[in-house]
Amino acid sequence: MPEQPPAPPPEAAASCCAVCGARVRPSAPCSQCLMRLATACDESVLLDALQGRRFGDYELLAEIARGGMGVVFRARQISLEREVALKMIIAGELAGEEALRMFRVEARAAANLHHPNIVPVYEIGEHEMQNYFTMRYVPGGQTIAEWAEPHREKFHEIAAAMAKVARAVAHAHERGILHRDLKPSNILWDPSGEPQVTDFGLAKLLDDTGGKATSTGMLLGSPCYMAPEQVGGQVDKITTATDVYGLGAILYELLSGHPPFTGKSVLDIARQIHENSPKNLTAVPLDLRTVCVKCLAKKPADRYATAQALAEDLERFVKGEPVTAVPLRRAERVWRWAQRKPALALLAALCSVSIIAGSTGILWQWRAATRANKAQAAALERMHWQDIDEWVDRGEHARALAYLASLIRANPEHWQAVMYAMSIVDQHDFPVLQGPVIRPAVKLITPACMSLDGLSILTAGEDRAVRLWDVATGRQTAEWTLDSTVTAIGMTAVLNGIFIATEDGALALHSSRGQPLRLRRKYTTPILEMGVSTDQSHLIARSAEGIETWTIAAIVQPPWSIALPDGIKGASLSADGSRLLVWNTRQAAVWDTSSRQAVLHLHAGISFRSGVLAAGGARVAFLDGGFLAKIWDVASGKLVQTVESQLAKSKFLSLDRAGSRLTVAGNANHLTVYDVESGLTVSPLMSHHYAISSLQASPDGSCTVSYGNDDAIHVWDARTGASFMTSISFGLPRKQTHVQPSLDGSSVLVHHRLEGQFDESITVWKGNSQLPPKRHHVPGQRDFNSGRISPDGRLGCLGLNPENRAYVYELATGRVILDKPLMGDVYGIHFSPDHKKCYGVTANGAVYGWDLETGHALWQPNQQPGMIRPSAISPDGARLIAGHNDGHIRVYDTSTGALVLTLAHPGEVKVLRFAPDKSGRFMSGSTDGIAHVWELATGRKLQTFTGHTHTIIAGDWSPDSRFITTASYDSTARVWDVSTGQMTGTPMPHFAWLSHLEFSPDGRRVVTACRDGTARLWNARTGQPLSPQLQQGYTCETVRFTADGATFLVRDHEGFRFWDTENAIPVSIHYPEPVSGGLGMDSENWRAIMTPDGTHVFLGYSINDGALWQVNHPRGKAPPWFADLLETLCLNTLDESKPGGILLGEHVLKLRQLLLQSAPADFHANWAKQVLGMKTTK
To answer: Which intervals hold domain Protein kinase (predicted)?
Structure first.
């Protein structure tokens, strides 16, 4: 082996130039290098000699990158035998002071960063007056832009990569370092598939205020990726937002293949950055496109506040979750453009005004030409969505339904209108035509007669024929031809036949089989009218001579008769046939039909104008003169009450079955229901649009039917005056109309006769099927202490009062599953995850457990100090937590009932909620105004949230368990970051104490319930309102989102309703269910009143029954026939080209045929079938 030459002495080494090897005097510049510097056209001449040469402890292998200030070599560190990237300043020892300062800043900045996506710095040094530092060598030499080229349409992969880059930049920001030169070439792609941020050559320390960053007018950075403030040289305005812009520019290039702005020169690029917006990336998903646009906002304040926030939004996109960035509306884009180019914007505005002024005539002609096509739109413009609520509140349900039908016809995907319409129909009776309109071929000489069940109709024509019709088909089923003209007809269900009276004085019983049975009579004059008692026991017939009465069971026997001086004006039977009222203008009498004796004689004070007998036979009422209504008790003969009309004359009256309610109508438009005992009005406003022309009670006395000169028929509750059915309006010319209710008033026969011409029609109408609440009554119990629905939606749970029992029953069947006495008011009922065990907590601090399959207790009750307020069960069912008013939270083992932890939270605990991520964490809130997050396993306090100045009454976790929100008696709601304990956004102010709040399923919104009777939607990140105050009308106590987040429920002290989340408009009626008190605390047990899909709402707290409401939640497109159905129900349409009234009602027959062809799983069709009383195929 040859002998190695001796190493030169240190002073000799120092006298050699590190660049070219020439000998120089100590501390003197190299003359040869100076000559090269003066004559060379490229700085590479100074560096070429270094390649392959030793540089201190490094052997320089090859140049791999070069920038405006430095050059990077691939080098081998000899002592550690590893490859590194070595960066040195280009000018070397000739570099100026500013270049050296910037080089050192980069080295110092990069050395302080330790992140898996930032290239680490190994060593900083100086060799032979040449500053350098070394970094990890990233082999391959591929930039993120080169990696993205074949992945251009893999949007989720690009977003995931940029999220990592953003987190790396955020790491630098957190350590006070700005990059200021972010571009694709400064982000390397390593062999393991990870991005690596490098080149902090323009890095700035956020706390570095010494020295100038650059010379005046000098641009720091790469123009295509620079933010507007950076291009303008506004050094004092360069912040973390500048790097966010750079990240957005990189993302834009990865998605499009080119930077946001390119140009022929730096000045051209700079101008575009200030004045223009990047081209829209239409092929990119909207959320990712929106993120990119937000990063590239001209104003720093409009960008993401931090790189961390950008990273989180990108990660949300990758996970398929909604991003927080909101797309710019057209108006916002125009405004920002106008701010950038005010002169051009002013010119454009002036031009627009000129164009508009000059085009007025053209627009007028265009509008005239298209007016016919926009008739529907014009009709819609005459109303506002908010009007629907007012119409419903005023009882104008048909008007509301017609408007909703027009909205749906214009936009079948308007599911909000469909849902509101369904709620109206589900809770109100609309008249439905029960069969085809019967139009007799001959003129009828008596009013049509309907069977008590509403299924058959009897008519008598001037051709001496009596015909029986089937209501459902409209077909004639039987016919009887008489020898004499018919004068009166009647039907009986007992004898399966009909009674026919003729002009020759005969009365016969006819049936479809056999010969007619001629009845014996006492009088000989023709019968004018007849009637059968509701129980089918007696038949009465009135003629000019008097009243004849037959007992139907002995119909072949002669009748007994009654005659009054001056004739008989009216007669009626009680429902059971035991009482018979006869009267004329001077006197009246009530007869006992079994003894055939008069039990009451009455004489008119003025003149009897109308008289009625209650269906129960206990009371009788008369109009005596034009203003007095008098009611007598039949048994005692006592005058019970006298009611005086204050305005118009009274013409008609009716009694309910018991005779305890009197309905009076007259020449005016209004009806009034009086309480007979007190004489006081008990009804709401009951009115027609024009004078009332008839009034009669249903045979069972449950309802009253009125007809007015407004050609409308109303069916009213005989006791309350509430509307039983939306008015039946026909819209036909003035006519004679006969109205007859069925036994219970659910069906109404209407017989129209047009005056002056032969045109008769007979129709039968019945209210649509409704969805009243399914009520569960517990005898002797009322004003329950608690109520909830089980998590699986199968069981209803009640805390009974006053007996303090835990009560659980099946909602579908009413079968009682559990009924156990407890010590104290039942404040909570919880279930194990498998619903096999049930746990109860009481106000006096006791905890119970039961096996639901056997009903046996799981353990002896465990009672602890302090009253229990809220309680909750862990997601795994192993622990039950209870908040006591002694300032403690107690944790119980559900398998033994034993107390396992006691945690201190001063004050009275008001809220307990477990995190949805099943981590075991739970939150608590108290009267001390402080909230905590706890670890269930250890009882360790993980986080504390301070800021409220009054009691925290409610709280909730975000779906990702990263945030909590709290509501307080300080009239604010707040959102908190669980990891930091800090509030996010601003407080959400209200005008009164709050009751409850909840995160939306996507975590982007919070809805609050306030005691001032309003609810409101808020941005969960910023605390800004997303809606106006949503007027509920009464103190709001609970808000719940449906699982899809499309709607939310607001429960108030009078009922509940649903709202649309996106547009903050009501999408249902206000369902009435009043409560007697408030909650005063918050736990999931108290708020569990709705199934996740919102289709069932269970209410039991502070009311007297368990009430299960069914609410339809349509989604998607309504079928073409849906709007037609709504118009058919309300007999009204906004389309003036369509007929209304009876002609519109006939459309239901076609709809029924159409629905028979629907698919079994068709939601809209099944709902329609249920409404129309058809068999569903669910």
So the answer is: 58-318
